[in-house]
Amino acid sequence: MIEIIIGAITSFIISAISSLGYFGVGALMAVESACVPLPSEIIMPFAGFLVAQGRFSLLGVTLAGAIGCVAGSVLAYAAGAWGGRGFIEKYGKYILISHHDLTLADRFFNKYGSAAIFFSRLMPVVRTFISLPAGIARMNFSKFVIYSFLGSLPWSFGLAYIGLKLGNNWDTLGVYFHKFDAAIAIAILVFAVWYVRRHLKNLRLNNSGFPPARE
Predict the structure, then answer these.
(1) Sequence spans of domains, the chain
(2) Does 180 have pLDDT greater than 90?
(3) For residue range 58-83, what is the model confidence (pLDDT) as tens digits?
(4) Which residues contact 67 (CB under 8 A, 6 or more apart)?
(5) 40-52 and 2-20 helices, crossing angle to 10°
(6) How many Cα atoms sit within 13 Å of 92 on the Cβ side?
């Protein structure tokens, strides 16, 4: 089933880039960075393969990919800042997100946001969704854009370069990244389970009259 889905996504990516050129590369990378799991591990290696075929330049696809990442990231950031924060402030308690959690997120992005955004762009799965919490925390927008671009450049270049070197075997890269994606997804799931258990424990302590566990 997974192979069928990946095959369909790959066909869509190949068609879009073949038809739209650099714009297709940028548009697809924008979709991925707007919290839609469209794998850049397929987009950029195929663009790199087309570099080997003489259709594109390596610099061109790298810039198209990085600019597309920034465009999609800005959309996700705006959704978090304008809609997501208000929603969480009003309904967060129903999904185990407290005002204290928002305060912690604000402090984190104010202090470590630049590094978090830069390095998250180099990580599968995380790079797709990091912009939304950055927007909810209302990280400094200029820094967000700058470090999104700087982090997306090596990611876009690296994947395109590998696709260039792999030639007709560019699609084999997706197999290895799929395994890495699964490992990161498991780590995120473990964190989610810990987060829910912590909040439920604090809720029980509050109801029993004991002070909550320290964050």
Answers:
(1) 2-170
(2) no
(3) 999 999 999 999 999 999 999 999 88
(4) 26, 149
(5) 50
(6) 17
